[in-house]
Design a protein that fits this description.
The complex is a heterodimer of chains A (about 375) and B (about 300). With about 375 residues, chain A is mainly alpha-helical. Chain A has 14 helices and 4 strands. Chain B has a two-stranded antiparallel sheet. Chain B has a two-stranded antiparallel sheet with strand order 2-3. The chains are: A mainly alpha (about 375), B mainly alpha (about 300).
Chain lengths: ~375, ~300
């Protein structure tokens, strides 16, 4: 079977599945099976978070650069596309009315996604070029600062609601969010498996060596950063048009940190790890909310400075728990839960014959065989001692 | 002209605070090549420690110079201990891993400090008690300077001179310079690097805490997230001056403080509304990275293979 046919079948199955879930979310349900609004919202946010985590993983996990301003690019995509749909949405709805309501809103959403992605990519280019020319941690601080600038700028633009918030038409639904989540995963996966991906991984492993081997490191870093920003923009577009309301509070530092936690938990440089991280980080606060009947004794300081021992619900410790998870993961398992390993169903397949070159080139993660052998030798030596 | 002098005084006041915090960033970066994201939060911890000391030692109701000195040094000492604990518990175990790992740990530490303080003190701002009687002094005609601004200048200059003394005239300062030059060589020469690193964290945290108490005197509203933005700006100040360079951190802090208040004062004439105040530092950062990445006083070091 040719790969094109395979991809087509894969695409059709995915869309059919997403369509069924989407239908289950509607008021009528799908043949009697329904999903309540609460679960529907969670599924939607899992989808958006998968886009965010997978795209951030491209720059943080695979290229080894450290961006912590993903929420800023998300905000750029969200606000630029929302400005478009608020301004031209009505006109376009009537222009595309021959496609039916679902068709018209889908077309407008697609245009909005393109706009959001392009604007976020351009901004990513502007931010990326000065900071990625340099080695080291400058990207981290620049992206963090940039995310804050963007928030301040948006707060000062009255055309997009400023501090009061921005009403956006609700064109996005689970079907589109799911499709874009799958597209993001497929695109990032294909980039990583391509020669560009090899270049990115070589930069992560050793930037100096990569440069010596003729990899144009600045160029590849910027490319990876721009693609990552574009997808963050798409996540922003979908969030804006699902949530129907935008406030700059949705794009604070804490949002960027959440995405970092997703990929750190899953393992930087693992596609499946990032997806699982996105699911866990979306569901964990909800789990804690369910457990909010558990009271934890905690020291608190009253309004006039008196020290009290009071009991607080587990739920209010959500961010403290996140922070502790982050620190403990770094101390105990710095490569994340999955590391660069992929979790998949490959072990179900029949083992294929290794091609002749595989032994000398490297394994599926791109780790050179020689390096693996060295690592094995070192661990066995340690065991001997 | 009078307002210009006034703006400059206000700018240099906040700039001195940036400089105090930037010193901690630059020292830790110089030694460990780590952006200590939690440093801005140590500044916040310092302000809250000062708040608790002032209330529980009874200085809140009766302003006096002794009360101020006790609160200042008390919170500096407590913050120094907290800084060493952070280093010991979170950073030392990950020091052997990649820089990305230490950076993520630092972010985790920053989040942890912020939200544990939100839980303990709640997110609503608190009023910091006035520790000294407030007076206004007139300078150069119409410009005025109040006690807390004067205090910021005097205390930060004294602390910076003290730091200069420790780094250049004491044995541990010599060890700090050696470790920042090359950690492994210093270790081979018999320097107790673990101690030097812990000492650096203590020193930086004490300076940040002093900044916290001084800011709380100047603008008596403290909240758990107050360290986030001010810490970032201080980091920008360190980069502007040349990261790892101590006079550079002071220069960068003063420049950023001055630039900020000048934008607030005069930006409207060139089309920058004063609400962009917080964006100034980051615009400067991007310019520095484009034009002179090593910073104003930093030297360009080639990476050796």
């Amino acid at each position: 079977m040719s790969s094109l046919v395979k991809s087509l079948i894969f695409g059709i199955i995915v869309i059919a599945l997403l369509y069924i879930v989407n239908a289950m979310m509607s008021s009528t349900g799908f043949f009697g099976a329904g999903i309540d609004d609460y679960s529907a919202r969670l599924l939607v946010f899992i989808g958006i978070n998968i886009i965010l985590a997978t795209s951030l993983n491209l720059i943080n996990g695979f290229t080894g650069q450290f961006s912590i301003g993903h929420a800023g690019f998300m905000a750029v995509g969200a606000y630029s596309s929302a400005y478009f749909t608020v301004t031209y949405g009505r006109q376009l709805e009537s222009a595309f009315s021959s496609l039916g309501e679902l068709g018209a809103t889908s077309v407008i959403l697609l245009i909005a996604v393109v706009i959001g992605a392009i604007v976020a990519a351009v901004v990513g280019l502007i931010v990326g070029i000065p900071s990625l020319r340099l080695r080291g941690d400058y990207l981290a601080i620049v992206t963090l600062g940039f995310a804050e600038i963007i928030r301040i700028v948006i707060l000062n633009i009255d055309a997009v609601g400023g501090a009061t918030g921005y009403q956006v038409p609700g064109y996005a639904n689970f079907l589109w969010i799911g499709i874009f989540a799958v597209i993001t995963v497929v695109v990032v996966h294909n980039i990583v498996k391509s020669d560009v991906g090899r270049a990115l991984i070589s930069i992560r492993e050793d930037e100096l060596a990569a440069e010596a081997m003729g990899v144009n490191t600045t160029r590849y870093k910027v490319v990876s950063f721009v693609i990552s920003s574009a997808f963050a923009g798409i996540a922003g577009v979908l969030f804006a048009h699902y949530n129907k309301f935008l406030s700059t509070n949705d794009f604070q530092f804490i949002k960027s940190f959440e995405v970092i936690i997703m990929i750190v938990l899953g393992g930087m440089g693992s596609m499946t790890g990032a997806i699982i991280g996105a699911i866990v980080v979306t569901l964990l606060p909800e789990l804690l909310r369910q457990l909010s009947f558990i009271q934890v004794p905690f020291i608190q300081v009253g309004s006039s400075g008196e020290v009290l021992l009071s009991s607080i619900p587990l739920d209010s410790l959500r961010l403290v728990i996140f922070a502790l998870i982050l620190i403990l993961t770094m101390i105990l398992r710095p490569q994340g839960i999955f590391g660069t390993k992929e979790f998949g169903l490959n072990w179900l397949k029949r083992p294929r014959k290794e091609s002749a070159g595989a032994e000398t080139v490297g394994d599926s993660e791109g780790t050179p065989i020689a390096q693996q052998k060295e690592a094995k030798r070192l661990t066995s030596e340690e065991e001997d001692q | 002209m009078d307002t210009f002098v006034q703006q400059l005084i206000n700018g240099l006041t906040i700039g001195s605070i940036y400089a105090l915090i930037a010193l901690g960033y630059t020292m830790v970066y110089g030694i460990l090549r780590l952006i200590n994201f939690a440093h801005g939060d140590v500044f916040m911890v310092g302000a809250y420690t000062g708040y608790m000391l002032a209330i529980h030692l009874g200085f809140a109701s009766s302003p006096s110079i002794i009360g101020f000195v006790v609160v200042l040094f008390g919170s500096m000492i407590i913050a120094a201990v907290i800084g060493m604990l952070i280093e010991r518990l979170a950073y030392r175990p990950v020091r052997k891993y990649s820089r990305m790992t230490t950076l993520i740990t630092a972010i985790g530490m920053s989040l942890f400090l912020e939200y544990i303080f939100v839980v303990i003190f709640s997110g609503t701002p608190r009023a910091f008690p006035q520790l000294l009687p407030s007076d206004n002094y007139t300078l150069f005609g119409n410009a005025t300077i109040n006690t807390s601004q004067l205090l910021i200048f005097v205390v930060s200059i004294l602390l910076m001179l003290g730091l200069q003394f420790i780094i250049f005239k004491t044995k541990v300062g010599k060890a700090m310079r050696a470790v920042s030059f090359n950690l492994n060589s210093a270790k081979l020469m018999g320097v107790n690097t673990d101690f030097v690193i812990a000492f650096t964290f203590a020193l930086g945290s004490a300076l940040a805490a002093a900044g916290g108490v001084l800011v709380a005197q100047y603008n008596p509203k403290i909240e758990p997230l107050m360290g986030l933005l001010i810490g970032l700006k201080a980091f920008v100040a360190a980069v502007l001056g040349g990261i790892g360079n101590i006079p550079g951190a002071v220069l960068g802090g003063l420049l950023i403080g001055a630039a900020e208040t000048l934008v607030v004062g005069y930006g409207q004439y060139i089309g920058i509304p004063s609400t962009y105040r917080d964006a100034v530092a980051f615009a400067i950062l991007i310019l520095v990275l484009l034009i002179r990445p090593a910073g104003l006083l930093g030297s360009n070091v080639q990476e050796k293979v």
